[in-house]
Design brief:
There is one protein chain. It contains 10 helices and no strands. It is an all-alpha fold and 210 residues long.
């Protein structure tokens, strides 16, 4: 059991500092780099201070997966469920996840996917997360009248194509991505988006583009 807050020593790092350091190691070098001794050296603290916040490395790894789900699962489910007047507006709302790294961290996503190759428990959690994301997108399409099969296929195509683009390292300029958005929406929904919907999405993206 971790110590109570009032019992913690006056160290220079917090529990979140440990988690953030571990996330950086996971993303940059893989789960094999997430070691207490390595992280302690990076943080400039004694290795023993780790145990004021965590019961062991398994506890830290669980915290990493919690962060991953908060960053890469919750926003997709939230936007897929968000009310919208049309299916095209709903799908554009979901596209926000792919346009803003604060809503979907693809580097963290693929670090977890690589981790899952060597850890059955992580693979199971990843598979459940994939299923939940696809189901959330399918439910979006069902709300606008698609049958179960059509909604499921549209969700799979939409989700798998985006994950595939990340896997292939596709890095289109913002202007090119925005030029193609209306075509993606029409293919994913079978309906043309309204100009006002596309314009609102473009404004949203450009406000967040460097």
């Amino acid at each position: 059991m971790t110590a109570r807050a009032q019992d913690l020593p006056q160290t220079r790092v917090s529990r979140d500092d440990w988690v953030q350091a571990a996330l950086g190691a996971l993303v940059d070098a893989g789960i094999g780099r997430v070691k207490v001794a390595v992280l302690a050296e990076e943080l400039g603290v004694a290795r023993s201070s780790f145990y004021w916040y965590f019961t062991g490395r398994d506890d830290l790894e669980a915290a990493l997966l919690d962060v991953w789900e908060a960053r890469n699962l919750a926003p997709i489910i939230d936007r897929a469920a968000r009310p919208a007047p049309t299916v095209t507006a709903a799908v554009l709302g979901l596209f926000e996840c792919w346009a803003d790294p604060d809503l979907f961290d693809h580097r963290l996503e693929f670090a977890v996917r690589e981790w899952a190759r060597r850890d059955d428990a992580v693979r199971g959690r990843l598979e459940r997360a994939d299923a939940r994301r696809i189901e959330a997108i399918a439910e979006l399409h069902r709300r606008y009248g698609d049958t179960d099969d059509v909604a499921t296929v549209r969700a799979r195509v939409q989700y798998h194509s985006q994950i595939g683009m990340y896997a292939l390292g596709v890095d289109e300029p913002v202007d090119e991505r925005l030029r193609m958005v209306s075509t993606y929406v029409r293919i994913f929904t079978g309906v043309a988006a309204k100009r006002a919907e596309l314009a609102a999405f473009e404004r949203w993206v450009r406000e967040r583009s460097p």
